[in-house]
Specification:
By secondary structure, this protein is an all-alpha fold. The chain has six helices and no strands. Helices cover 67% and strands 0% of the residues.
């Protein structure tokens, strides 16, 4: 059973104020909303369970890693920190795979990073559900305008007319990749202050 972020047993610590942890927490919340909104059909039961399980475990492992980093006074604590971030990275990779499977199952497009819609998402610096919803509504509004301005005979040939689910899946896949990358950096004890 999926637990809400307030119900997940996260250890207390200063790490909860860190931007990178807040980013992971946002991704966990977004995954939960995606599962509830787009994976409710019985054909997606396995994907929903896998997404929620991986999301929750990624957050818990990351919080344990941050806590170990806070208490990193001895070598054993440093080793534990690396293990926790390694596990978290694996779970973020699982999340990425779930979104790739979902996109294939729905026959949606997998947008490459250089696609204008993904470049706009990066420029939006999505770090909250409000940002995420705003970006999707702007993209949908722009594509509606594009459809309205396109001659009816050309509408079937339009390249860009994504659904909200297609946009959300592509962006959450990108954020899961980014989270995996951040965990790899933390695993190697590099600075992660660019978020």
């Amino acid at each position: 059973m999926y637990l809400l972020q307030d119900e997940i047993p996260l250890p207390e610590g200063e790490y909860k104020n860190r931007k990178d942890f807040q980013f992971f927490l946002f991704l966990h919340t977004a995954n939960a909303h995606f599962a509830k909104k787009y994976l409710f059909h019985s054909s997606f039961t396995f994907l929903r369970r896998k997404l929620l399980f991986a999301s929750q475990n990624a957050l818990v492992s990351a919080s344990d890693g941050f806590l170990a980093e806070e208490n990193c006074r001895e070598e054993s604590s440093f080793s534990r920190q690396k293990i926790f971030f390694f596990r978290s990275r694996d779970f973020f990779c699982e999340i990425k795979e779930v979104y790739e499977i979902y996109i294939r199952m729905k026959k949606y497009r997998l947008f490459p990073p250089e696609e204008p819609v993904m470049q706009r998402a990066r420029s939006f610096h999505i770090r909250s559900m409000e940002d995420f919803r705003s970006w999707i509504s702007i993209e949908r509004y722009d594509s509606d305008l594009l459809a309205d301005e396109t001659a009816e005979s050309m509408r079937s040939e339009m390249v860009f007319y994504p659904s909200s689910a297609e946009l959300a899946a592509n962006e959450l896949l990108r954020l899961a990749k980014l989270s995996s990358f951040l965990c790899r950096r933390m695993e190697r004890r590099e600075k992660t202050s660019f978020i």
